[in-house]
Amino acid sequence: MSQIKVNSLASVASARSSETSSQGVGLEARSIHAWFGQKHVLSDISLDFYSGTVTALIGPSGCGKSTFIRILNRMHEFIPTAAMAGEVLLDGKDIYRSGVDVTKIRLGIGMVFQKPNPFPSMTIKENVLSGLKLAQIKINNSDELLEDCLVRAGLWSEVKDRLDQYGGTLSGGQQQRLCIARSLAVKPQVLLMDEPCSALDPGSTLRIEETIRELSENMTIVIVTHNMQQAARVSDYTGFFLSDGGPGQLIETAPTSQIFSNPKDKRTEDYVTGRFG
Amino acid sequence: MSTLIGNKPQQPLPDGAAIPKPIKPWKPTPKQLLPDLLGAITAVAASLIVVAVTPLAGGLGLLATFISISIVVASSISWIRQDRKAAANSVSTIVIYFLAAFVLLPVLSIIFEIIRKGAPGLSLGIFFNDMSVTSSDAPLNEGGLLHALVGSLYVVALATVVSIPIGLLTALYLTEVNGKAAGVVRFFVQAMSGVPSIVAGLFIYAVWMISFGGTYTTAAGSMALAILMIPTVARTAEEVLKLIPTDLREAGLALGATQWKTVALVVIPAARSGLITAVILGVARVAGETAPLLLTVGGNDAMNWNPFSGNNSALPFYIWKNFGLGTETAIARAWTGIFVLMVVVMIFFTLTRILGNKKGK
Amino acid sequence: MSITENPASTHVPKPREITTEPRFSDRVFRGVVSSGGFISLIVLGLISLFLLYNGFGVFRSEGLSFVTSFDWVPESIENGTEASYGIGAMLYGTLVISFIGLFFGFPLAFGTALFLSYYAPEWIKKPMVLVVDIMAAIPSIVFGVWGYFILMPHAEEWARLINKYLGFIPIFSMPGDFFTRSPFIAGLVLAIMIIPIITSISREVFAQTPLDRIQAAYALGATRWSMIRAVVIPYGKGGVIGGAMLGLGRALGETVAVYTVLNLVYDIRPEILLSAGGSVASLIVNKFGEANAPELKALMAAGFVLFVVTLLVNLIANMIINRTVRKG
Fold first, then answer.
1. Which sequence ranges are marked TM in the entry (chain C) (predicted)?
2. Does C43 touch chain B (CB under 8 A)?
3. Does the pLDDT value for residue A194 go beyond 60?
C-alpha cells in the first residue's frame, strides 16, 4: 500500500521536475539556527533555493519549517524572544547584515500566509496595490500592473468587474489568490508561502497550485506544506525537516522526485510513505 | 543538479559541537545608533544656538525649536541613509515619542508639586487634631485634618457597603443569569459610569433634602458616591466572573447543586481576589470625589462620629474649603490635604495592582 | 434519494421543548440577582425623574429660553428683580472647554496609545502604563488646585504668545489683558484629565488589530508608520472615535477642576483666551451654596440638561466602542 503511494507521488514529482531548468541560486540559507528564548528550535539549516524553481519544505508539525521560512524574509524578529544565527543570502548578500533596510528586504522576498489576510478596509484594487502604497512607491501604469498581477495570480477573470468591492467579499481561495497578487505587485524575486492552502478547500487548493507553477517560471518560490501530495505536485526540490524533540533539523534535501522515490535517509522514507507524521 | 543540493549531509550536530551563539541581528548595533545619537546632539545644540541668537526665548521656545530641529534632522538622516518612506517613518516616530513624553510631564509635575507643597505641612499632629478650635490661618503646626480623614473613611465605607451588593448582583445578573435584558443592563451600567459626579450629588440632594426634608449627613454623601461606585464595581466584577471557566459551573451543576449553591460555593470563591480588586477599584474611584460631597455632607471643622446625623467633612471637602479661603496658610493646608488624599488613593491603587497581579498568576 | 423524498421522514419530529422547573432556591436566587441587576437602570431612571420633577417648573416658565438665554437672575425682593434663568452661556461654555480639552487631549492620548502599542520598548512600556493609570486615579480636586497654582502661570504665558501671533483670528483676540481663568486654561486641564480614558480605550482597540494583517503589511515592505496607517488606523478608527467621545463625556461633566480654573461669566464670548467662560457643572457648584428654593429648582433643571447631554454622548460612545471592540 505504502509502496503504491510512493510510486504515485514519485511519478507526479518526476513529471514536474523534468520541465524545469535551474537558473542559479536565488536565495541561500547558511547554517541557520533559531531560538525562542532559551529554546533552540532550528539547528544548522543550510539550503539553496534556485531561481525559477519551487522548493517545498515538508515535515511533521513542530519541526520548525514555519520558523525557517519566516527567517528567510526577516519576519522571525517580530517575536520578542526570537534569536537566530547564520546567514541568509539574497543575490550573495546577507539580508541580516548590519545597516540593511529591512523593508527593502521584504519587498524583494514576499510572503503569503497560512490564512488569507487581505486588508479588510481596502477594495480588491487597493489590496493589490497596497504594497506600493505601504512602500511609498509611485508608478504611472497602476492599472496595467493591477491587471498583470491579478492575471498572474489567476484571479483576473473572476474579479475584473468588481475591482472596487472590498477584499472580504471574495471566497477564501480567491482571497488567498488576492494575497498572492498583492505580493506580486511589488515585484519580489522570491515568494515565500507558509502553508498557503491549509485553510482552503480542495478546489481552491488546486487552483492555487496551478498559480504557483505558473509563477515559478520567473521567480524563486519556497512553500511550506504539510501536504505531501502538494509538495509532489508543485515543487522541483523538497527539503524534509524533522525534530526528534530537540531543535528541528533538515534531514534531507533533493529533487522532489528523488525524495519521493528514492530517499536517502530512512526517516525521510518513513515520513513520505506515511509511516509517521 | 542533485549533487548541488543533495551534497550536504544533514546530520545532527555531535554533542559538544559548537552551536553558534544566538544573536539578534535586527537589534541596532551601537555603531548604527551613532548617527541617531549625533543627530540628537545636533538637534540639542542647534536649538540652544537658535534660541540664543533669535528672539525665541524661554523653555517653550527651546522646546518648540528642539522638536522642529529633531524632526528635520531625523528625517534627513533617514532620507539620506534610506528613502522617503523611512523619512516619513522617522518623523512619525519622533512625533509619537514627543506626544508620549508630553503626557508624562503633567503627571510628574503634579506628583512633584504635591510633595514640594504638601510635605511642609505634614506632621504627626495633623492626624490627631481637627479644625474645631483652630482657625485656618493659625500656624500649620496647629490643627489638623483628622476630622476630614475620618469623614472620608465614613463616607467611603458606607458607599462601599451599599455598592458591593448592588455591584455584585449586577455582575452576577450579567454573567450567571444572563437574561434577555443582559445587553440592555450592560449598556446602562456603562452609561451610568459616565454620570457626572455633580449630577449624582444633585440627585441625592433632590431626593434626600428636597423630597424627604433631610439635612446634610455623611450618609447622604455616601449615597451620592455609591452611584459613582456601583458601575465601577459591577463592570470590574463582571470581567472577573467572566474569567471563571464554564466547566467549573457545569461541574457544580452536574453534581446536582442548585445554581444558587454553585454560584455561592464555587463561582464566587474562585473569583474572590478579583472581586476584592473590583471593590478596591471602586473605592479608588470615589475616594477623591469632591463635587457630590459639596452638595451632600455640608462640611464640618470638628469631628462627627455619627454618619446619620449632622454635617461632616471629608478630605476633598477639606482641600476645597482651604483652597477657597485663599490665605497662605489655608492654601498650605490644602496642599497637605492633597498630599494625604493622594497617599490614600495611591494605597488603594497599589492594592489593586498587587491583587491584580496575584490573580494573573 | 435525498432524505426529504423519503416518505418515512416526512414526519420530522419537532424538537422537544425542554422545560425545567427550577428549584425554589434557584428561583429566589435568579429573582434577587435580576432585581439587583436592574438597579442601575432604576437609578438612572430615578435621576432623570427627580431632576426633571424638581426642575419642571423652571422648564415650564422659561421654556426654550432656559437653554438659549444667558442671564441667571434669582428673584430678589430688595432689588426688585424677577427671576430669569438661562444656561445658554454655560452650555456654550461647557462645549467650548470640552472641545478645547479634546483638541489638546486627543492627539496626546492617541499618540501615547500608539507609542505604548507599537513603539515603546518593554522597559519603558510598563512604567508608562503605570503613569497613565495613576493619571486616571488622580482626583479632580487635585487637578484643579494644581491647574490653578502650577499650570495657570505657564498657560497664561502660552495664551499671551498665541494672542501675540494669532491674535488676528477672532477666537484668539483679547479685548483687555485678562489671560487668567480662561476657557483655554480650563480646556488644558480637561485635556490632561481625559487623556487616560482615551489612551486606554485606544490601546484596547489597537490590541484587537488582527496580527495577520499587521504581518501582511510588514511582509509587503511596510515601515512601522505605513503599517499603522494602512492597518491599525483603518481597523481601529471607530473604537478610537468612541474613546474620544467617552473623553468628551467626561469633560462635559467635570466640575471641580473646571470651577477652580475658570472664571464664570454669563455671556457668550468668542475669545477663548479671555478670562470669561461657562460650565453648567461649575454653575451648579457656584450657585448652590447661596441659592434660595426657586433657584435651587433652576439648578436641578440645569443638572437635568447636563445629565441628558452627557448620557447621550456616553451612550453613543459606548455604542461605537461596543460595535468595534467588545464584539461578542
1. 32-53, 89-116, 128-151, 184-206, 227-248, 298-321
2. yes
3. yes
